[in-house]
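Task 17 of the worksheet. Students: predict the tertiary structure of the chain below and write it out as structure tokens. Keep your answer in the requested format; marks are given for formatting as well as content.
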Amino acid sequence: MSLHRRTLLATGASLPLALPAVRSAAAQAPIRFCLDWALQGNHGMFALAEDRGVFRREGLAVRMDRGFGSGDTAVKVAAGAYDIGYTDVSTMVKFNAENPDKRLVSIYQVLDRTATALITLRKSGITDPKAVAGKRLGAPEGEASRMLFPAFARVAGIEASGIRWTSMAANLRDTMLAQGQVDAVTGFLFTTFFNLVGLGVKEEDIMAWPYAENGLDIYGSAVVARVDWLERNPQQAAAFVKASVEGLKMLLNEPDAGMAALKRHEPLFDEALEKRRWAMTRDRSILTPHVRANASGAVDMGRAETLIRVNAEAYGVTTPPKAAEMFTERFLPPASERRIG
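Model answer:
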């Protein structure tokens, strides 16, 4: 693994009920795989699957590249630059509606809950989500956490009309919050929390309300691929998912090994910090009650429909895709193999 840097089931293009046998190690299929961002702790599931030969055992030669944001990854997979991507499924609602010929499908829902959150510091005086009413709220314009905030505000009972938004580049968001230039921000909890710690903010002074834990219970990042690629390569898709599930199990059991695997791919990787980021990701977005009850990757179509509806409202999508056009469990191994926690 180098680090160089429609519905499948519902639009008349159904796949065979039985997937072909996985290729032997002697006939490994090349897979171009793009992450959502630079290496972070949760990516250890893929690094371990490579380092311990799980991808190779499943007949895959995987090249994994860092990403530059979920939206960018989705576009690159849709364009054919990559076969498979790891991206926030919310980015797919608007994209699929506008590009039905390049439609993306979630084939393994890794993060059972979105990491989007409302985040502030104790000094702001904001002690619960409703207290953000009338305050200065910051986020990059057009970013998912900001676009979904109105939906979160409705379910959380926040009076949003008096909120004053400040736009900034993503790399300035946490600094502006730490400096008091805004009262609170929206963003990915796992990213903003540890960025604030890196800026010298004490952990006990950081307050956060994840959307998914406060009324807007929608999915987060997933392994995705283009529908036509899946039709041509069902065995490769199933093999990649199977190996990823095994990688996740290894990461859950051996987090230090996961961080070490990532360090081997990126010498500047901060193992101690990323192990803590991984623990937060695990506890808040992976080992959820739904996953404990139904196994990793299980999709509740009601929650999937909620995700599509709130994103369609946020981005003005008048003809959003159906849940069955965006999510499939066809490539998952049996639930007994996906039990975690």
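Marker's comment: The chain has a mean pLDDT of 92. The first strand starts at residue 29 and ends at 34.
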